[in-house]
Amino acid sequence: MLDKNGIAKRIAQEVKDGYYVNLGIGIPTLVANFVRDDIEVEFQSENGILGMGPFPFEGEEDADLINAGKQTITALPGASYFDSAMSFGMIRGQHVDLTILGAMEVAENGDIANWKIPGKMVKGMGGAMDLVASAENIIVAMMHTNRAGESKLLKRCTLPLTGVGCVTKIVTNLAVLEVTDKGFKLLERAPGVGVEEIKEATEGTLIVEGEIPEMQI
Amino acid sequence: MINKTVRDVSEALEGVHDGMTFMLGGFGLSGIPENAISELVRLNLKNLTCISNNAGVDDFGLGLLLQKKQINKMISSYVGENAEFERQMLSGELDVELTPQGTLAAKCQAAQQGFPAIYTPAGYGTEVAEGKETREFNGKMYVLEEAYKADFAFVKAWKGDKAGNLIFKGTARNFNPVMCGAATITVAEVEELVEPGELDPNQIHIPGIFVQRIFQGKDYEKRIEQRTVRQK
Fold first, then answer.
1. Which of A25, A33, A47, A49 to mutate to test the interface with B (most CBs of B within 10 A)?
2. What is the residue range of B101's domain?
3. Interface of A with B in 25-64 (CB under 8 A)
4. Which chain B residues contact residue A92 at CB under 8 A?
5. Which residues of B touch A81 (CB under 8 A)?
6. How far away is chain B from the Cα of A81, in angstroms, using its nearest Cα?
7. Which terminal residue of chain A, N or C, has fewer Cβ atoms less than 10 Å from its own Cβ?
8. The whole model's pTM is what?
9. What is the rounded CA–CA span in Å between residue B108 and residue B180?
10. Does the ipTM surpass 0.90?
């Protein structure tokens, strides 16, 4: 079974040379730590930067340079700044190659819910609805089950949707899965996790074809 | 040169009154029009509708207006950093319209550029699209979103000249440029106000035509919301 860093490490393998990548808050943010250093990747933050770098050294924080999580950041050589309309133009226009975000629920048809729990304080969707409606390549990073032990990979989402039919791949603490027309196709198992355990933890249709390899991380 | 300068923040806000709709630039606390917000607090205007990506924190940014219950309705994409906001929202004192961030930017920009509405894929199939016209283009579904109408837009830039030309800095740019010219009157406050000719026309982000009033701001706090650093 993987921890959060393990999930991020596995997703980092999906980041290819020449990609522009948008990382959501939470586990997705960790992905940047594990991207191979022999490839060229630029991270986009939707508040208006391409070429986002690591956190600044103490004393070098700049209130005019933050990421979408409002954290102080740095800009790498070759970075650019732009306004919010252009930022979402990049996203809506499908110029960003890969979007990685967290989710509360994913359905077997690719629907995603990650912004609102009825009856609880709603903070808002931020840029999530724009990202999921537009990106062609969306990977969800999440735990396979919620704190109550219930599956987060469902036949149908029960929470208010963020987007419909948009998720392409899911990496959880248990498995790597692809969203297909027929349901969640199991691609890889986390180290030490068996197919039965993944079946148990998946409420939606799980497609298991042949031998399922263990993740190489 | 058409001179857009006003003496100070109080002249810049001449004509504001209760019940108006304002656009305010900024993302989190970065690039917010601090001087205009302070003046709105001082004037104690009520029943305001504010279009702003976020709603500040309890004791800074738009949180200052919330504290004094000046805001009736908030149009934002994310409002998670403010306990007083939460209290007013849950008690029903505050009306909140949550809008996807890119849609919010597009609705401002549509107002700036004379489009009555735009189609966006964001929110299709979700509660954000309820009651809105949808349409298919090239096999994909889109939601019709109307341009905002606002009385004043308050923006903050790094540098500006007396003609109203603006240059922004870093990610403090965010929503500020798309709100310029998107309201009846756009008020720009700048950290540094210079003479015409001092800014390179090649480097201007927003031409002065989109700005009605500009003034040199003062006492910028530029508070950092999440100070994150790494070790040397």
1. A47
2. 9-216
3. 45-49, 54-58, 60-64
4. 102, 120-122
5. 168, 170-171, 173
6. 6
7. N
8. 0.97
9. 9
10. yes
Give the distance from residue B19's alpha carbon to the nearest chain A alpha carbon, in angstroms: 24
pLDDT at residue number A120: 83
Domain contains B3: no
Chain A contact set for B225 (CB, 8 A): 66, 70
Which of A46, A84, A126 is the closest to B178 by Cβ?
A: A84
**Residues A11/A171, Cβ–Cβ less than 8 Å:** yes
* Phi, psi of A182, rounded to the nearest 5 degrees: -100, -5
Tokens 């283009």: give the residue. B137
> CATH number for the domain including B192?
3.40.1080.10
Q: How many structural domains comprise chain B?
A: 1
Q: Which of A65, A42, A68 is nearest to A127 (CA)?
A: A68
Q: What is the pLDDT of residues A28-54, one digit of tens each?
A: 999 999 999 999 999 999 999 999 999
What is the DSSP code string of A56-124?
A: PBTT---TT-B-TTSBB-EEEEEEEE--HHHHHHHHHTT-S-EEEE--SEEETTS-EE-S--TTS----
In the prediction, which pLDDT does A119 show? Answer: 82
> Do the chains contact at B171 and A70, CB–CB below 8 Å?
no
Q: Which two tokens stand for residue A25?
A: 């808050």
**DSSP-assigned states of every residue in B110-153:** HHHHT-SEEEESTTTTSGGGTTS-EEEETTEEEEEEEPP--SEE
| In-domain check, residue B129 | yes
Does the structure show a pLDDT above 90 at B81? no
Q: Which residues of B touch A72 (CB under 8 A)?
A: 224, 226-229
Nearest to B127 among A60, A63, A160 (CB): A160
The model's pLDDT over B199-230, given as tens digits with 9 standing for 90+, comes to: 999 999 999 999 999 999 999 999 999 999 99
Q: B1 lies in a domain?
A: no
Q: How distant, in Å, are the alpha carbons of A149, A181, B50, B81, B109 from that of A144?
A: 9, 20, 39, 28, 40
- B189: nearest Cα among B64, B11, B49, B69: B11
| Residue A208: band (very low, low, confident or very high) from pLDDT cuts 50, 70, 90 | very high
Judge whether B136 lies within some domain.
Answer: yes
Whole-number pLDDT of residue A183? 97
B180 has pLDDT over 90: yes
